[in-house]
User: What shape does this take?
Amino acid sequence: MKVLPADKIREALNILAGEAEVYAPLVRGDVSGYIKWTDGPGDELALDILNTYMPPKHIVMPQTENMYKFIATGKDAQVTEIVTAEGPRIIFGIRGCDLQALHALDLAFLTRGYEDEFYKARRQDLAVIARACYQPGPACFCESMGVDRLNPEADVVIHVLGEQGLAWEPKTPKGKDITAKLQGILVDKEVALPQAADMKVKVDITGLSEKLAGMFEHPVWDELSSRCMNCGVCTYVCPTCYCFDIQVHNRGEAGNRFRCWDSCMYKEYTQMAGGHNPREFKKERFRQRFLHKLQYFNERYGANLCIGCGRCIIMCPNEVNILEIINKLKEVQVDA
Assistant: This one.
């Protein structure tokens, strides 16, 4: 098996960064996320931590992105389209849960007769080097959501071997091209892969999507939403939340239209121009988030929108726990 020695990992990232933008799990200050690799003094590679606080979705869906710009003079207007051309990029060290989140975003933005050109431009030249996950954390339940954490569907799969470095397995033609760039530092070596620990947390979602179809008006939503503060932190750290708003910025005769992340947990998200709001109250916004995760997306795309990374459980300031919610929804009785 190919092995990238531990003392060659930074060199490998620098080689790849010479031909593509490379995003790796890094810790900078109090924040961890998939950050552009520069090999600077602040680039602390974090392959040993479970999951970064911030997921990699910003790589394909930036928090803010311009859509077009314009100049309006009197009754005349000139509109200039903004073309996204990112070029080759690599995500290094992504785990199976976050990789499945990318596949979910692909379904939303690239299928069913609709292609988001901004998303497509960022996704099409993206290569993925995923790391097998052998030690799930106390809030992880990815396998219950259908994630393959040991052999994720990536261009290259790496296995962290501690002081020996990384076992390296190219899986696709794109992965073989990446591997060829590192042939000078990869070595052939017989290694034993780590033993995978069992998932500490499991949840059964069998039949839940179908059951939720009859629970829109169920009183259980009042109970489940009682602790939620609608702060929205769950939607920002979630790797599959993709709600966005579209705004215009004007300065004199010139301006631009841009889109930015938004959240279904905010009242303003569904506020209409005439004042009506179909999700006026907290319960309705809370219900929307979990029905989207557990029912609506599954009905449309045949896949789960929750990928079991556990970030929302860890980050919620009021201990709203999606595992408890799933179990409660499974328990309640629904009138036939």
About this structure: Residues 2-331 form one domain.
